[in-house]
Amino acid sequence: MPNGAPPSTRMLPALDDDNRAFWTGGADGALRIPFCTGCNVWVSPLAAECPDCNGALEARPVSGRGTVFTYTVNHQQFNPAVPVPYVIAIVELDEQADLRIAANIVDCEPDSVRIGLPVEVRFERQNVGDESVYVPVFAPAD
To answer: Is-contact 100 90, C-beta < 8 A?
Structure first.
């Protein structure tokens, strides 16, 4: 296996110039989100240009801290390699109101997750072709 990463149980993106920094930033522990220097706003979901001003975006590290905005607990085993139940959440990052990303909540019992729960990013290393990606997941903050 390339780079010693385990085989993936997740659906992973094809890497391109617009998403590479987001999906590979976890190699050094940084969650990188596109930032528009024209508007001075963070942009999510990932995009090639700013949806407001069409300006160029640059990937910048964020704190990796946020709160659970909403969530669901999945009990249906769609993929035999992924044990249930698991939590799928929308996490609002601390850097900006309405800056949200979808991610799994890990390292806790699903019934302990609640709206407003403070969380922090972790990364799961996976393979896409011959490259490693670092899937952001979130765990309850200490």
So the answer is: yes
